[in-house]
Amino acid sequence: MAKKTEENLKGMKTEELKTKLLNLEESMRVLRFKAQGAKSKNVKEFATLRKQVARVLTEINSSTKIFHKNKIKH
């Protein structure tokens, strides 16, 4: 069974999530260029990065929706 190194995204602030998103996108870019030149040792790495980006974006969107919903109620 693979190790899970999942971070708690719900506890992070929006700015922290945005910086994490930028880092993940940069990693994807580097991996994409690295894959053009040679075979990758870890073929699932790109898919894993894409899933992490999706998780971060989901958390950013849900936190902004909650913020806007609370703002409208008050």
Radius of gyration: 16 Å
Task: List the uncertain runs.
Answer: 1-5
Total strand segments: 0
Anisotropy-based shape: elongated
Question: What proportion strand?
Answer: under 5%
SSE map:
Elements: H1 14-37, H2 45-73
Helix pairs in contact: 1-2
Keywords:
single chain; 74 residues; mainly alpha; disordered N terminus
In short:
This protein has helices spanning 14-37, 45-73.
Structure description:
This protein is mostly helical. 72% of the residues lie in helices and 0% in strands. It starts with 13 loop residues before the first helix and ends with a helix.
